[in-house]
Amino acid sequence: MPYVIAEPCINVKDKACVEVCPVDCIYEGETMLYIHPDECIDCGACEPVCPVKAMALRFVHRRHASWAGGAGATRRAGDNPRISAVAHPLRFPRS
Prior knowledge:
By secondary structure, the chain is of the alpha+beta class. It is 15% helix and 13% strand. The longest helix is centred in the C-terminal third of the chain and has 9 residues, at 70-78.
């Protein structure tokens, strides 16, 4: 069950998750970040550091993976550059 980044990340792209991801499976798209589902090891390190709570576990039965976004997330992540360093991440106060 790989993690996915949901709608709250759109136009935020905080990148705190990038700093804690042990396998560098987070890619930057035009308006949001994406997690490559084949590279995510389900460690959950990204979930507590996300300031907008955009991380979620994605349970998809392999039989339904084609319509559940698994292939789409792989394509979107693969089309974007891998993030390996964060220059100036945005910070939001935790509530």
